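Thread: adenosine-5'-triphosphate complex, take 2
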Amino acid sequence: MPGFKVAIDGPAGSGKSTISKKIAEKLNLTHIDTGAMYRAITYLALEKGINLDDESEYEFVSKVKIEYKNEKIYANGIDVTTKIRDDKVTKNVSKVSSFPYVRRTLVSIQQEAAKNIDVIMDGRDIGTVVLPNADLKIFLTAHVKERAKRRLKDKEVNNVTQDIEQLAKELQERDLKDSTRKESPLVVATDAIVIDTTNFTIEDTIERITNEILKRRITMEELQMKDVKFQTLKVRDKVEGTVFKVEDNVIYLTLENFEEGRMFVEFYGKNITSFKDVVKEGDKVTAIITKMNDEPSYILLSRLPLLKDESFKVIEDAYKDNKTIETKITKVDEKGLHLKYEGFDIFLPYGLLDRELVESKDTLKGQTLEVHLIEVKNGKRPRLIASRKQIFEARRQQELEERQNARKEEIDQINTGDVLKGTIERIEPHAATVRFNHVAGLLRISQIQHRRIEDINEVIKLGDEIEVKVIKKEGMRLDLSHKALLPTPFEAFSEEHKKGSAVKGAVVQKLPFGLIIELEEGVRGLLHQSEYSWNPNDNFANFVKIGDVVESAVLLVDVKKKKISLSRKALFDNPWKNVSFKRGENVEVKVIEIITDKGMNVEAKGVVGFIPVSELSTERVNKIEDLFAVGDTMQARVIDVNPKEWYLKLSVKQIAEDSLRSEYEQYLTHDEEATTTIGDLFENLLTEKDKK
Ligand SMILES: Nc1ncnc2c1ncn2[C@@H]1O[C@H](COP(=O)(O)OP(=O)(O)OP(=O)(O)O)[C@@H](O)[C@H]1O
Ligand SMILES: Nc1ccn([C@@H]2O[C@H](COP(=O)(O)O)[C@@H](O)[C@H]2O)c(=O)n1
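Output below.
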């Protein structure tokens, strides 16, 4: 019987011997570490002191006896297990192993050793030269930095320190020599599976290779074709046995053809570590024969190949029934997650994974994940694709419904007129969104303040807390107002400006009966024509323009009707208020203005009166300025007065005439002989004047 052969090749420190040794233990294979053989030859060559560069001095190799016993290696009967790991050996082994004579001699020893047994052999040329027909070829590799790191760890365990860069350099140098030598260089066999263990644990790698071995050792087709009953039992036969002895980690079974078999706990499957409480005497167990020549004549059994099919059935059923399965995340790479379920590798591309999980992908390794299978294809390398789409879409739908219910519940509690506190969640040029809890409302720019706002960002910021009034509710829509909670400009104005207070504002409109004055933005008042001036002759319509600033006093503020009445004249005294004139009364006047050819404006008792040119003198006045100047004071007689019209007409002439008359009267009193009457005298006087 040729035996089952596994070839493991790869560069230095990629984990070949560690992995091979563990798999050999697990699957009952014989492990042959060929590197150790080349090292043993190198050690002996150094011991002998031969010229290492001279191939003819290596004849001794054909006579060397190399043996493995109890995990130790012996060369010509000497235990060289530790010695072959010396730096000196490591530095020279690539040179020694490059000689064709050395290689050919060792290759034939290795091929002989592997004959007729189940073997896992590791080295540099196993898949290409030593076992070219191996049932499984693996090329193990890892990034050189990772390999150096692992080697450094090995050294540190033995209290040896070394610079990691130096270590990496040495590994690279050895790889270069091994892969560029002429005779059987280190290359990847064309039919090898390349496994990069940079990011794999030892267990990951073992599991991966074990799966490949099991797949090749016993295939489905073989199992189905077997009818093992009453036949000579062979490796790969499916048998049913009855348990007759149970130990912690092994069970013993009687097989149907009276042979005895045993099964170690790790071959029972289901991840158990002890048979206690799992299997009892008398139980029937179906298994596959994995080895026939086990001492003392027990047949080795395993349920793993069967479980593999059972597990695949579980996977197929889960796929058919669209069942949610709980998987374990074993690896995270740039394309997606690698999952494990029932011992199978499943791939889940990021496009089918929840967005939040994609964002935190680097923390996922080792976690469990519920998925659905969306593609299941059996074969040498089953193709299993999983998806979270159904799960996250269902969750999103549920969250959406929960949100909608919460919104509905909240909105049902809100009514038009309610005053609520919320947070500014979004700002756009003409409106902001205010979030309460599950619902949000719209606060238009026009509803923020009573005054006009040019830039919304000047008055609110994202995250601001704001009190608003619900001014409209329509279905799920809320229209909000903040200004509804603020005093109106009228209210603010009326608070600040009591009756009588002076205010200034620009004329924005001229009406036939008065002026509209803007006192503040949005606050306008009426200055009625009757309130413009005390002076009845002041006609604002003629000399007040739109835009002129007018000062006035507040007469009345009616907040409800939004009306403000203003008075300009209230700011001034009415000069006629306490003044009275009588016709014929003489008063002191002061010239304030000369109006050429017409007369003079004068001030009398604080008001303005007018003396026409005809009343300035008893004589004809050609040019007023020849007789009077602004500032002159004199007595004048009131000849007409109308306080309502602010009308006062005066005469200087009449006083002068009186004075003339009284002079003549005095004259007549002193001249008793005089014959002329006063009337005569006046008549004469006037006649003379007319002549002039
Ligand atoms: N994922 C892994 N796979 C394999 N070995 C690993 C892994 N992680 C760490 N190691 C460690 O890397 C070290 C090197 O492994 P090992 O000696 O088996 O490599 P090798 O390929 O046989 O090297 P060499 O060819 O130099 O003898 C060991 O200490 C091993 O435990
Ligand atoms: N099949 C092989 C195995 C090993 N070598 C050479 O031996 C060196 C030491 O091997 P380790 O696996 O113990 O590191 C290695 O660097 C090779 O030069 C070989 O040529 N062929």
